[in-house]
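Hi there, hope your week has been kind to you so far. For a while now I've been wondering how a particular protein folds. I'm sending you its amino acid sequence along with the backbone structure tokens. Could you read through the record and tell me how the tokens relate to the sequence? Take your time with it, there's no hurry, and the full record follows here.
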Amino acid sequence: MKSCIKRGNKLKNWEQKYREIAVIVEKELSCSAHDMDHVWRVYNLAHRLVGEKDRVDIDILLISALLHDIARVKEDSDSTGKINHAVLGAEMAEDILIGLGYPGEKIAKIKHCIISHRYRAEHEPQTIEAKLLFDADKLDVLGAVGVARSFMFAGKYSGKMYSDVPVDRYIRENLEGGKHNGKIKDISRHTPNLEFETKFVRISERLYTNAAKEIARERLEYMRGFFARLEKEISGMM
């Protein structure tokens, strides 16, 4: 676990709690695209995005990063489509943190970070910690990592690598409310290039910090080139 917090007894106490939390989270995660590798990438990105002038409670930010996807497997395995991993995850986090002796005020702030981290949701981040977590989580779906994760996700649901369905039609037919940020109805129809067109290209406009926007621009440039080439290779143009 990497950290740029000054060393000391407080850090040792924090790291011990982080390890305890990480063990709990790892037991809950089993899907390839939202595993502990993703959790640690978000953890490190969140730490990287903290600016010198930001008044951030690092403890809230890093614990939220560790716990943000704890209910993801439960949502993915729910055939009813009623589970929202951000909402359920906040509830699960509360139980865990109570058991670790965290005060109610801090738990409430962590729950807000978790419940507002999702792209396809109505909850907006209100605190600096929640905004940093949101940005870090979104950056992890961009760039080379984002390409790899999207194909891992497609493989998990036996999806295709590419779809030539018009984006507007796809949004209308397979995203709730006919909105680009609506919840996916039939995951088997959701291909990596459609994820790019309906979500990834719009992420920059949703980010809160300048540092995240700068990273996103470079990562998106890479993805545009990749999916443009993929389309040409599939069509036999290259």
